[in-house]
């Protein structure tokens, strides 16, 4: 609660997750349904996993605003505010110490409305990638762009295309 209140992010609705699982597929399973959550989301993390967790959050949520709260109620209490990328860059220069609470901004109503009206929603993954390829984009770049549009990893797009090819 201290991290949430001091974060400066909205406190009206929030979800406390705690520690993320260790396996990548389990992490995705936890984060995927939270992508469209409009309330603030809180995670715990250890110093040796915080950078990897930020990478997972960036992959799942994009470059949202976050607050890293470290060593709460202790002598070296510290708050770092910024985007996921900015905080990741800061941690690259300042090795993480102590336990962290990561406070993540929820999806804005504008982003939710924009996602709802996304032009590609009616397309299959193959059609989505083909759309970019038709615009003279190399397949690898088309897959990367489709992944970005859909808020998933390139690997998810690749695996979906591979599964579809195997079914045919």
What does this structure look like?
The chain is α+β, with helices and mostly antiparallel strands and 168 residues long. It has eight helices and five strands; from the N terminus they run αβαβαββαβαααα. The mean pLDDT is 89.
SS element count, helices:
8
Describe the biggest sheet? 5 strands, mixed
Uncertain residue segments: none
Helix content: 40-55%
CATH topology of the largest domain: Methyltransferase, Cobalt-precorrin-4 Transmethylase, Domain 2
Average pLDDT metric: 89
Specify the CATH class of the largest domain. Answer: Alpha Beta
- General shape: elongated
The strands making up the biggest β-sheet line up spatially as: 1-2-5-3-4
Overall CATH architecture of the largest domain: 2-Layer Sandwich
CATH-wise, what's the superfamily of the largest domain? Tetrapyrrole methylase, C-terminal domain
Which class of secondary structure composition applies to the elements? alpha+beta
Order of helices and strands: HEHEHEEHEHHHH
What is the percentage of strand-forming residues? 15-25%
End-to-end gap: 52 Å
Give the tally of β-strands. Answer: 5
The rounded Rg comes to 18 Å
Determine the oligomeric state from the structure: single chain
Concise overview:
With 168 residues, this protein is α+β, with helices and mostly antiparallel strands. The protein is built from eight helices and five strands.
SSE topology sketch:
Layout: H1 2-7, E1 14-18, H2 24-31, E2 40-45, H3 50-61, E3 65-70, E4 78-83, H4 84-93, E5 100-104, H5 109-116, H6 125-134, H7 139-150, H8 154-167
Parallel strand pairs: 1-2
Antiparallel strand pairs: 2-5, 3-4, 3-5
């Amino acid at each position: 609660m201290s991290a949430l209140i001091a974060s400066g992010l909205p406190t009206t609705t929030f979800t406390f997750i705690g520690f993320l699982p260790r396996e990548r597929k389990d992490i995705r399973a936890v984060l995927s349904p939270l992508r469209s959550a409009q309330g603030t989301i809180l995670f715990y993390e250890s110093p040796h996993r915080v950078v990897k967790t930020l990478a997972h959050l960036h992959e799942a949520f994009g470059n949202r605003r976050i607050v890293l709260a470290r060593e709460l109620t202790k002598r070296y209490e510290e708050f770092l505010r910024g985007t996921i990328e900015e905080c990741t860059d800061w941690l690259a220069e300042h090795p993480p110490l102590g336990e962290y609470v990561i406070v993540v901004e929820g999806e804005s109503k504008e982003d939710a409305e924009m996602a709802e009206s996304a032009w590609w929603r009616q397309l299959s993954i193959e059609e989505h990638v083909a759309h970019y390829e038709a615009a003279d984009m190399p397949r690898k770049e088309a897959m990367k762009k489709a992944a970005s549009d859909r808020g998933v990893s390139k690997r998810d797009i690749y695996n979906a295309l591979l599964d579809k090819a195997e079914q045919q």
